[in-house]
Write a structure and sequence with these properties.
Elements lengths: L4 E4 L7 H13 L1 E4 L2 E4 L5 E4 L14 H4 L13 H11 L13 H12 L5 H12 L16 E3 L3 H17 L7 H12 L4 E2 L1 H5 L4 H15 L1
Helix pairs in contact: 4-6, 5-6, 6-7, 7-9
Length: 222
């Protein structure tokens, strides 16, 4: 865990205790061992891969752990051209070499820059309204959400919608966050935070479908 970037490969093949050990590090940026607490260096963030839960030997991650990941990005098979490029670059005599692009201090500067990008009030309101509508027991949730969603997104979803939108605005050279920035990051932010019911799953409705419909309704209302 004592690194700036920690990659956990096939995290949903690990036992529950191993997965739980990541919680403190991801949330508090510290590790406790035999009663002693060690602070992790900055910057620190965790990347993880997981296999489809339909595969044998995989286990769904606890909601508390899922919520600590900012994004969940679905990765499909590469295209034909990409597979050809992979085969060429990894089966030759000399393998590709990686070079440093950023150091820790520059990453911290970039993080500080992202946080300083201004956000209009209506963007905050839109983000909060989107998240609150995913909660089936909340008064803001549309009637169609209640039979499809068992558990909605929490406050971290709002935080990550805003931070993700800020980062996208910075990457696109924008001086402030726009609505399209929030819409662009909504799917990876909400994908693992909206837990669908058996009814939804049996009808082939995913959390992505729920998020897209809520986005469409909110954009029309605004």
């Amino acid at each position: 865990m004592f690194a700036n970037i920690v990659l956990t490969d096939e995290i949903n093949r690990a036992p529950a205790k191993t997965q739980a050990a990541l919680l403190e590090a991801m949330q508090e940026h510290r590790v406790t061992v035999t009663g002693r607490t060690y602070t992790l260096g900055s910057p620190f963030f965790v990347l993880a891969t997981q296999n489809p839960i339909e595969q044998e030997g995989t286990y769904p991650l606890p909601e508390a752990q899922l919520d600590r990941f900012m994004f969940m990005i679905g990765v499909d098979y590469p295209s034909r051209d990409e597979e050809i490029a992979i085969a060429r670059s990894t089966t030759g005599v000399s393998l590709p070499t990686l070079e440093h692009v950023l150091d820790g201090s520059l990453v911290i500067q970039c993080q500080d820059l992202v946080r300083r990008i201004p956000v209009p009030d209506h963007i905050y309101e839109f983000s909060v309204d989107l998240v609150r509508r995913t909660r089936p027991d909340a008064g803001e949730a549309p009637d169609w959400v209640k039979p499809l969603v068992g558990w909605g997104a929490g406050p971290r979803a709002v935080q990550y919608l805003i931070l993700g939108a800020k980062a996208r605005a910075a990457l696109h050279g924008s001086y402030m966050v726009r609505m399209e920035d929030v819409v662009a990051v909504a799917e990876p932010v909400m994908r693992h935070r909206v837990m669908t019911t058996f009814t939804a799953q049996s009808d082939g409705i995913s959390s992505i479908d729920v998020t897209k419909r809520l986005l469409d309704e909110l954009k029309q209302a605004s």
